[in-house]
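Table 4 source record.
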Amino acid sequence: MADESFSPEAHRFAEPRYFEDLTVGERFYIPSRTMTDAHFSAFQAASGDNHPIHYDRPYCRARGHRDLLAHGLLVAAQGAAGAGIFPHVIGDSLVAFLEQSSRFLRPVYVGDTLYPMLVITELTPGRTTGVVVMRVTIHNQDRELVMDGIHRYLLRKRTAASN
């Protein structure tokens, strides 16, 4: 028998926030993750990137690396907003993920633990939507910044949602 008091629409992490509910400086943590051989293999299979720097330990060591070197895009993927709470906080106000950039500052190896973070740096309002600019940083277990970049998202404004 159906439970009429249950609503799938109300089954969410939080009340959705809209563009004008966000503030510059607001932080969205993404859980840490230790890079394993399995992460490297899965990314290699998905991307087709088969350069030996990512899977051949003797090759890496001969070039001065202590272990397998992570694919740059694998590192960037650790900053995916969907791995943290941001998409749950904004709910259906998200229109699009517009852009991303990444600067790779230090190597990432098998066994490194990465700590991604998103911080709102700019809010540009439009008529019915707004662009949220976030700085994405990824530090390793030694507190070294290994990647820095930008994400841009298009969100609905609350006033547009109620029209």
